[in-house]
Specification:
five-stranded parallel beta sheet; elongated
């Protein structure tokens, strides 16, 4: 009896499953800051810290410590800010659907979340992260890869590390360039079209339709 080969579905997390983190985080820090420094100066320093965190030059604790120091925020206020961004709006309907796919498909993640972004993802969609195949999780902060999916380097590493056929592999992302890159490696790329300022995730319907076209029903 011939065994059925499971399709593998890789999901991007940012802007597909959770909302943007850094913009609201900066606004919270700015509103709470005691230094009264100009907003553009603070934003420049904020970006430097986030980039260092993206590139793995500093860990999560150091990221928070540096942000706290730059904005002059006490521990209590920082805890409030952390708690607030932990409540980041997430794609509940889609996450619930994905959790039903575990038996039929191999589920994985390809994401360039920052360390703070991953912290928020764990708080919001931890149940989905837990059902993903551990060997199919490629998160920049959790591997040697850092920052912005690093072009074709990430995909070449993935295809060399995992013993799956690119033709049986789907990749869902909100970035067209990443979709085109996945296609160039033989994967089936599906673009998740969502306005970053949108909170309704109405584009789920469009995604479901695209997945139906490759015989995956949600």
């Amino acid at each position: 009896m011939t065994s059925v080969i499971k399709k593998t579905i890789f999901w991007d997390i940012g802007n597909v499953l959770i909302q943007s983190v850094h913009k609201p985080l900066f606004n919270h820090l700015l509103q709470s800051q005691k230094s009264q420094s100009p907003a553009d100066q603070l934003h420049s320093k904020f970006s430097e810290i986030i980039d260092d965190s993206f590139y793995g030059k500093i860990n999560l604790k150091e990221t928070w410590d540096n942000l706290q120091q730059i904005f002059g925020i006490d521990n209590n206020k920082l805890d409030i800010i952390k708690s607030d961004i932990e409540k980041n709006n997430y794609n509940q309907k889609l996450v619930d659907k994905l959790c039903q796919l575990k038996e039929k498909y191999n589920l994985g993640i390809i994401s360039d979340l920052s360390q703070i972004g991953y912290y928020v993802a764990i708080k919001n969609i931890g149940k989905f992260l837990q059902i993903c195949n551990k060997e199919l999780i490629f998160i920049s902060t959790e591997s040697s890869l850092t920052k912005r999916k690093e072009g074709d380097r990430l995909f070449s590493i993935i295809t060399s590390k995992i013993n799956i056929s690119p033709g049986n592999t789907l990749f869902i992302d909100d970035n067209l360039k990443n979709i085109e890159l996945a296609n160039s490696f033989g994967m089936i790329g599906i673009l998740y079209e969502r306005n970053e300022d949108e909170i309704s995730w109405d584009s789920n319907k469009n995604l479901y339709y695209k997945l139906q076209n490759v015989r995956i029903n949600l």
